[in-house]
């Protein structure tokens, strides 16, 4: 199951990166920098100010981790095909099971390693998942949903401004959350089902895509 989920997510990330820029691998975008900036936003949502009362905004924390995962997958894909990278990532994730610890310290360690290596610290990321009780199945559902929504936006006019983000008085993110809960995430065509359901709900002009 893990290997299949990894392959699916890597393939989805390759697709969305190619949709945005056909030659994205050759561009050598600074994905590590995006991870660094997202990590700062993540810490803000978790809370770090000792001079005021703060409670971790766990939903936002998990959303930020999913965003970081997008950039991490892109870094991994710079080094091989989705199949090759999935094998490597599965070995890393299976080698050692992380035990929940101090999230702030582990986030800082993850960020420092990211900046030093300019690569994705998969083990450090898995540690943060354990810290906030984000199981891999949930990461998969959240990632697949966000990825499909990003692709749907691109396909329906996000770049030229014709995309409608509000559907029947609700943002597309809200529709996405509802759709994800209604589908079987273990299905092989989960992402395709997500896309089709969003397409069925979308009130704007729907393009005929090959």
What can you tell me about this protein's structure?
It is built from 10 helices and 2 strands; from the N terminus they run H-H-H-H-H-H-H-H-E-E-H-H. With about 210 residues, the chain is mainly alpha-helical. The chain folds into 2 domains: about 1-135, Type II deoxyuridine triphosphatase (all-alpha NTP pyrophosphatase fold, Orthogonal Bundle); about 140-200. The chain has a two-stranded antiparallel ribbon with strand order 1-2. A hairpin with a 2-residue loop joins strand 1 and strand 2. Helix 1 packs across helix 5 (about 80-95), helix 8 crosses helix 9 and helix 8 crosses helix 10. The longest helix is centred in the first third of the chain and has 20 residues, at about 60-75. It holds the Pfam family dUTPase_2. This is dUTP diphosphatase.
Task: Record keyword descriptors for this entry.
2 strands, globular, 10 helices, 210 residues, 2 domains, mainly alpha, 2% strand, single chain, all-alpha NTP pyrophosphatase fold
**Structural class by helix and strand composition:** mainly alpha
* Biggest β-sheet: strands ordered side by side in the sheet: 1-2
Order of helices and strands: HHHHHHHHEEHH
CATH class of the largest domain: Mainly Alpha
Q: Give the biggest beta sheet.
A: 2 strands, antiparallel
**Overall residue-averaged pLDDT value:** 89
Q: Which second-level CATH architecture of the largest domain applies?
A: Orthogonal Bundle
Shape type: globular
Helix content: 55-70%
- Quick one: CATH superfamily of the largest domain? Type II deoxyuridine triphosphatase
Let me know the number of strands. 2
Radius of gyration: 18 Å
Overall tally of domains:
2
- Give the CATH topology of the largest domain: all-alpha NTP pyrophosphatase fold
**What is the count of helical runs?**
10
Measure the end-to-end span. Answer: 29 Å
Unreliable stretches: none
Strand content: under 5%
């Amino acid at each position: 199951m893990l290997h299949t989920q990894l392959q699916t997510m890597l393939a989805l990330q390759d697709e969305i990166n190619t949709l945005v820029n056909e030659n994205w691998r050759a561009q050598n975008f600074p994905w590590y920098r995006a991870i660094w900036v997202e990590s700062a936003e993540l810490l803000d949502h978790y809370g770090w100010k000792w001079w005021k009362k703060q409670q971790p905004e766990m939903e936002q924390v998990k959303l930020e981790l999913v965003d970081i995962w997008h950039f991490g997958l892109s870094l991994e894909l710079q080094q091989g095909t989705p199949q090759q990278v999935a094998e490597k990532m599965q070995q890393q994730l299976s080698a050692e099971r992380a035990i929940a610890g101090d999230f702030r310290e582990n986030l800082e360690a993850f960020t420092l390693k990211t900046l030093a290596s300019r690569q994705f610290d998969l083990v450090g990321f898995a540690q943060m998942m354990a810290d906030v009780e984000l199981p891999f199945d949930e990461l998969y559902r959240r990632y697949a949903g966000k990825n499909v929504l990003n692709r749907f936006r691109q396909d329906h006019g996000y770049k030229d401004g014709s995309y409608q983000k509000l559907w029947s008085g609700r943002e597309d993110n809200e529709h996405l959350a509802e759709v994800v809960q209604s589908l079987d995430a273990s299905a092989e065509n989960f992402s395709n089902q997500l896309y089709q359901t969003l397409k069925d709900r979308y009130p704007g002009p729907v393009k005929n895509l090959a």
